[in-house]
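Sample 1 of the test manifest.
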Amino acid sequence: MTATSAPSPIAGTTAENPPEHLVRFDRVERIVHWTTATLFVTLMLTGAALYAGPISTLVGRRDVVRTLHVAAGLALPVPLLIGLVGHWGRALRRDLGRLDRWTGDDRAWLRRRTRDTARLGKFNPGQKLNATFLGASIVLMLGSGSIMKWFGAFPLSWRTGATFVHDWVALGVWLAVGGHILFALRDPDALQSMLRGRISARWARVRRPRWYEEETGLSAERLKTPR
Amino acid sequence: MPGDADGTQPGTHVGRRLFLGLVGLGAVGIVTGAAVQGWLERTIGPIVGRDPSGVLSLLPIGRFRYYTVTGDFPQRSRKEYHLRVDGLVDQPVDLSFDDLTRMRRVELTRDFQCVTGWRVPDVSWAGVRLRDVIDRASPGHDARAVRFVSFDGAYTESLTMAQARRDDVLVAYEFEGAPLSSDHGGPARLYIAPMYGYKSLKWLSRIELTDKVEPGFWEERGYDVDGWVGRSNGRFDEPT
């Protein structure tokens, strides 16, 4: 990172001296990811135990499971919110902006026929959809879960509606998180970068050419057509 | 078209719109979900119930949810189990589990409707009529209501004597053709077919005859004492 907050090519990078690695996720982003992931998994497991009678009988201690579920639920948005505020949240804020924006290449990637022609930025559309859904699920689960927990303050039909929303969004979260883990395991370089922060420049150039260009100021096509 | 100097990215705000759309949809779901859930239970519920693979039973449709008002599912074996009938009776009795099974067996298959919205179609129960259990203790003439106590240590329920003597009110000890498990309220529970689930007290340990109805655990917290399905608690479910 340079002194200004504006993104700029990595210092010392030239066409003759391309970087070997790029920083994919900074320390704050990685801490936010893994604390949020831990909370999500805790919520999914305790939620399953509360939802399914046989698991519940097996695990026992419903009061403890319930308390743990509610506590993890209330804590769920905290790492993300702390990570977003302040100067330490620059990279996270910038990545949220990237997840928000969809280009023509993203739309092309979604169609099997034109997928190979798409030149992607830092995140592919699947990652954008996953992040958007899981982000919304935090709000949805916190809202519906609070109504289920403190139902006395709401109309009785809202309790039914909150249970309905909580159940179906939970199903979506299981699918989204399950899919996210499968994709991560299929791409060890990407998974490693969520642990260590760095990823090879080659991965970026091939898989995320627009991001490579943005970070280095070099053309991602350069090495494909050597002079 | 790389990102410009102030750090903004190219493209349109699809993510933001999708995020707000999902949150809005969830808010609508909370307000109208009661009706949607009711529709799903009626249309898809029966299909889920018949799916032989059981995969569909993971869906939040037509399945039991488990509520406890105390720490855990209380455990008591059939051997340890006993049911006390006392209060305004001539002859208090203590029935063992075997005493119950030696009485006239009754089977009943009906939908199970919870006041929080979920409904399980065609649930089969077996047990004995509550009225037969009460009559074992020779109720006094001043007994006009019945109070039930759970061995979870907290939950209570009540019925009028007329409600308690209905044909479709059981002390149930079998559920879907198997012994009633602890998560469903075993070894024996109340099953009041025409009323919402909260009336069907789980882990039944004591039946007390009283002179008037005493509001139970949830009724102290706002539920209707007469919990008829479709005619109470501001709900309009199909009667069970």
